[in-house]
Amino acid sequence: MDPLSPLEQALHAARALVLADLVAGDVAQADVVSLVEDSVVQRRWWVEQWPEGAPFVAGLVAQDVQDALLDRYGRWPLCPVCGTGDPHALGVEPELGPDPHWVCSEAGVRVAPVGGLARATGGGPAS
Q1: CA 93, CA 58: separation in Å to the nearest integer?
Q2: Of 14, 31, 47, 71, which is the most buried if we count CB atoms within 10 A?
Q3: pLDDT of residue 40
Q4: The pLDDT value given to residue 2
């Protein structure tokens, strides 16, 4: 079996991280997982054009899925930090960079790395 290329490793890692966050929020239904797959396909082309962007793929896939969910279902992931006020979604920072994190722009805090929402929210799939 051939080893995975750095491109494929980055895409598989991005998929796994975003899926972990969807599972943590109990929103990993089949149609939502399809949104992840759609983003990975689009980002594969993007990173083939710009291989130096491979470390940025996880944050971009997270943003793509977040945008697609907003269009179809509403805000995701909701901020677990702010207990008062209107519910609001976390954002991904940096928008284009390595080591992406979910952040609450209202409180000005990093909540979790992309892929780490379960630790931050105590979330996971319903049993």
Answers
A1: 11
A2: 14
A3: 97
A4: 67
| Closest by CA position to 57, among listed 23, 90, 27, 99 | 99
Q: Where are the alpha helices (DSSP H) in 5-116?
A: 6-24, 30-49, 57-72
- Distance between CA atoms of 64 and 39, rounded to whole angstroms? 6
Distance of alpha carbon 54 from alpha carbon 83, whole angstroms: 36
End-to-end CA distance of the chain: 37
Over the chain (127 residues), what is each successive 10-residue block's mean pLDDT? 84 97 93 96 94 95 96 90 87 94 94 94 56
User: Which whole-number Å values give the CA distances from 97 to 4, 41, 92, in the listed order?
Assistant: 22, 19, 10
Sheet holding 101-104, edge to edge: 91-93, 101-104, 109-113
Which two tokens mark 17?
């991280």
